[in-house]
Amino acid sequence: MIAEHPVIQVLIPLLGAPLCVLAARGVFAYWVALACSLASLFVATRLLTSVMATGPIVYELGGWAAPWGIEYRIGPLNSFVLLLVALLGALVMLAAKKSVDSEIPRERRHFFYAAMMLCQTGLLGITITGDAFNVFVFLEIAALSSYILIAMGHQRRALYASYQYLIMGTIGSTFILISIGLLYQMTGTLNMADLAARLPAVGDTRTVLISFAFFMVGVSLKMALFPLHMWLPNAYTYAPSAVSAFLAATATKVAVYVMIRFLFSIYGPAFAFEKIDVSQILGALALVGIVLMSAAAIFQTNVKRLLAYSSVAQIGYIVLGISFANVNGLTGGIVHLFNHGLMKGGLFLTVAAVVYRVGSSDLNAFRGLGRSMPITMFLFVLGGLGMIGVPLTVGFISKWYLILAAIETGHWLAVALVLLSSLLAVIYVWRVVEFAYFQPRDRSSDPVGEAPLSMLVPTAILVLATIVFGVSTEWTVGVARAAAVFLLGGHS
Residues 295-331: pLDDT tens digits? Predict the structure, then answer.
C-alpha cells in the first residue's frame, strides 16, 4: 500500500474540498476537513518513515514512465516538508472550529473549509511532485485558495490584504512560469531529474541565465524574502486567525523548499553557487532582512503584525543557511524551516485563542491576560523563547548550526548579526510579555476566561514540540542533515 501513498497524499485533501462544499453546513464541513487533515498526516508520516528506512520513493502517475509521464519523487527533504505541512494542517484544523465559528459567518464556513483543503492540496502537491510544470500548477492552487482565505477576514482591510497578495503572488508565479518555460525550451523536458541531467550541456547559454534570474525573483516573492516581503504583514494580520496560523507555518516554508529544490537539484550547486555565485546576493539580503525585520517587529502594535515581521526575519535565517552551500549551513536552513513552522504555528494559535476570547490581536488587548488566560500566555512565552533562540528550544538548534556554518566559511559578520537579531527578538517578545503580565486589564472590560480546550491542546502540542525537539535533536537534525548531504551530493 505504501507504493500508492504519494498520490493518496494529494488526493485526500483534493477530494475533501468538494465534499466540504457538498456538506453545505459548517459543522459537517468541519468534520470532513478534519478527517482529511488527519488522514494526510498519517500518510505523510508513513512516507517519511519509508524514505528514511529504504531511500527515495518514485511514483509514476498512470503508469507512464518519466520523462513522458508525471512522477512524484520523494526524498529526505520533501518528505520532511510534507510532514510539516500535514502536521500543521491537522493541528490548525483541530483548533480551528471555535475560531472559525467566531470569525466566519455560518453561510460561508463550508466554503472556508473547502478553500483550506485546496490550500493543503496545493502545498502538498508542490512538495511531492517531480515535474517542474506541476510545481507551477500546484503553486497556483495554493495561491488562489490563499487569496480567498485571507479575504474572508472580518475586517475590510482583509480584502485589501488579499488583493495586495494576489498582485504580488501573481507576479511571482508568472516569473516562475517564465523560468520553467525557458528551461523547457532549452532541454525539451519538464521532469526535474531529467532537467538536472540535461541542463549542464546548455548551462552557458543566455536563456538558462535568464531563466535563473526569473526564477530567483519569482520564488523570492513567494517566500517573502526581504525586500520582496511587503505583501506578508497585511496578509497575516487581517486573515482569519486559523488562516494566519496555517499560512505562517507552511506557505513560505514550501516556497523555500522550491528554492532549495531548484538550486540544488535542477540548476545544481556548481551553476548556482560557483558560476553565478548567488550566495553573495542571498547572504546579503538574508542578513539585512534578519536585522531590519526584527527591528521592525519591535515597533508593531498588533501582535499578528509583530509575528508577521518576525516571520520575514526568520525566512532570512533559512536563506542564510542556504547561502553558505555547505552541510552545516544547509542543515541549519532545513531544520529551521521545520522548527520555525512549529514555533510560528504555535504562536499564531495562541493569538487565535486571544482573538477568540477578546476579539482583537492588538497589544492593548493583551493587558492582564497573564492572569485571566494563564495557560495561553504561558504557551506564548515558551514559543517566544524558541524565537529568541534560548538553549533547550528548537530556535537555539537552528541558530547553532547557522553559526557553525558561518564560522566554517569565516563569515564573522553573519555570526554577529545572528546574535544581534536574537537580542532584538528578546525585545519584541518582551513587549507582549510586558502587556500580558505587568499591565493591568481595564476594569471596565468584560471578564476573560481561558481558551477552550479544543484550542489549547493543538497549541500545546506545537509549543511543547519546540522544547522536545530542542532537547532531543537526533530526529529533526538527522533528517535535515541527510537531506543536506543528499542535495550537496548532486542528487536530484
Answer: 999 999 899 999 999 999 999 999 998 888 888 888 9
Q: Alpha-carbon distance 203 to 267, whole Å?
A: 8
How crowded is the C-beta side of 141, counted as CA atoms within 13 Å?
Answer: 23
Q: How far apart are CA 426 and CA 85, in angstroms?
A: 28
> Is the sign of the CA dihedral 213, 216, 218, 224 positive or negative?
negative
87 vs 203: CA distance, rounded Å? 38
Cα separation of 491 and 359, whole Å? 50
Return the pLDDT at 2. Answer: 65
**Residue ranges, the chain, pLDDT below 70:** 1-3, 24-27, 66, 443-447, 490-492
3-state secondary structure of 369: helix
445-461 pLDDT, tens digit each: 666 778 888 889 999 99
Cβ atoms of 193 and 492 closer than 8 Å: yes
CB atoms within 10 A of CB 82: 27
Shortest CA distance to 35 belongs to which of 100, 90, 99? Answer: 90
This prediction's pTM:
0.90
Give the model's pLDDT for residue 443: 63
Residue 116: partners with Cβ closer than 8 Å, 6 or more residues away: 33, 89, 93, 96, 145, 149, 242, 243, 246
- Decide if 458 contacts 94 (C-beta within 8 A): yes
**pLDDT value for 492:** 38
Instruction: List beta partners, residue 74.
Output: 57
Torsion of CA 134, 139, 142, 144, to 10 degrees: -110
Residue 228 grid coordinates: 520582496
With residue 60 as reference, give the H or E element that holds it.
Answer: strand 57-60
